[in-house]
Structures are given as C-alpha cells and as structure tokens.
Amino acid sequence: MTETSPRPTTIPHLGPPSVVRRAPWQDSEEVRVSNWVTPWDGVETIDAGLVGLPYSGASITAGSAAGGPEAIRLAFRSNTTYSADFDVDVQRLRVRDLGDVGGHLTDVGVAHAKIEAAVAAITTREPHFVPIMLGGDHSVTAPAVRGFAAARAGRRIGLINIDAHHDVRNMEHGPHNGTPFRQLIEGGQVAGENLVELGIHGFVNSARYQRWLLDRGGTVISARTVQREGMEACVAEALRIAAEGADLVYVSVDIDCLAYPWAAGTSASTAEGLSAWQLLEAVWACGLHPKVAAFDLVEVDPSRDIQNLTARTACSTILTFLAGLATRTGVAVPA
Fold first, then answer.
1. For position 200, which CATH number holds?
2. Pairing relationship of beta strands 82-83 and 48-53 according to DSSP bridges
C-alpha cells in the first residue's frame, strides 16, 4: 500500500481560490510572490495564510469589491519577496493561499454567518498562523473578527482600523459596510477602549458617530494628525492603546484610507487621505508587534481601478505587513 498524507480537516464554506496565477518569469536570483504563495494543502503547518472573502453585497455604494481577492492575487505576479526599503526578504515565511469563503446572493446575514464559521474553523485548525483576509467590502470584518474571537475564546482582542471612515453607523439599514465596528463593540468582541480608528478623513463622517465612539472609550487619530505628527508616532500610539490589556490585536485596512491618487480603485477615497508611504509604515509596525495576530484588507474594487494600481498597492501593503511579521519571527532573510 502507498502511504498517503492525512486528510485535511474540512473548513466549512471554504472553497479553492478563484484564481491561481503563476508568475510567467523569474530568474535564479529572485522569487516571485505568485510562485511563493501556493495553495494550501490543508496539512502543512503555515505561518500566515490568505483567505479570500469575495463579498460586497452589503456595501452602501454599489461596486465590485467582491472582485478584490482575485485582483490582488493576479497583481502579486509583479512582486518579488524582497523589499529594498526594509531590507527584508520574506521567502522563509510559510505563506499559503487557503482559498475563498462562499457568500450568498441575496442574504447578508447568511453570507456573514458563513464568513464567521469559516474564519473560526480556520483559526481553530491552525492556531499559530496569522490569517490575512482579503475583502470584499468592509462588512466582512465584523464576521471575520467574530470568528477569530470565537476561536480565541477567553482572549481579549484589540483592534486597529486604518480607514477613511469610522464605520460605526447605526443598524437601521442592517449590517452593511458602514457598521462593522459598532457591531463588534455592541457584540462584546472588542472593548471600546481597545479600538483605534487611524487615518480618519475629513468631510466623510458624522460628528455624532465620532462622539458615539469616543463615549465608549474609542480613539480617533485623523489623517491630518498623521500628517502633522508622523505615522511612526501615530501607529505606535495606536498599537499601545489597542494592545493595552489585550491578548491579541486584529488590524483592518480599508484601502480607502489612502488619498485619491493612490486609491482610484475603491468607492470612497478622498483628497484628505493618507499617502501610500504612510500606510506602508503603519502596516510594517503592525507586522512587528508581538500581539498582532490577524489582518484584513478590504474595499479594493477592480471595476474602478486604473491599470490595476490599487490592487498593486494592496499587494505592497500585505507584503510590507508580512515583512514586519518575518522580522518579528526571526525568519527574515538578510540581504
């Protein structure tokens, strides 16, 4: 008889990635990301894993953010595993693509329940890896955090949202992409004093929602504050607050945190946003932090993008976070 590997534990609602793209060319002195991040076999122990959440049925603004995970996967073919900016090569990290969580065509609640169940099962199955969720609209963050919290029962979770918007709207229109952080505070998955909103833009939010968040102990660091005080200081403060008394920190990046020139491929970027470099400095610091244990990136809309530039910015953001993680775990390859 031929010995076979054990059958992987089934993850509910998780299917194969919508696309697997190999880089068409690389030479002997480099590794292309599309040839490094391969599909997970369900057995291998991994350090981090991509989980597609291709759902945008709960978006306030009509769009195609459901195509975000596929656009990001395709854009990775332009990247190598080495960053000259941080002098880090991430190729020793074991990063795999776990696939996509199925949604629902008409029912937001069902779609979110599938995400919650899948993320809970994944993070229970692989307790030491860092899940990197690819949205989808920002509504997917609420069920993703609920699933992550369920798998880490008894652990207090802090949260940093790098975003243009507070996303603490009331629930009068249901659980849409403007409500995830209200849901998490009211649901008890995240305490208000451990929630930091970083990079919030002008003229796209409500004073009442900011007051609601502040009254519950939340922290708001605006994009103007980042511009005036520097991202290094601001993200250090965000990490300090999110991690205070918490066991784990979840980081959510809405690509509309960026100013319009860096994020054409999303529905709600504005002139008041962050620069690409400010975002990269933020996620580098998050990757380095010992309590950061989960990450998502949402709201990439390929139907609005120009020459895939926003998807490529998303790739740079994810890879820079992984560079921080590789440095933190001691597997970064020196130049």
1. 3.40.800.10
2. unpaired
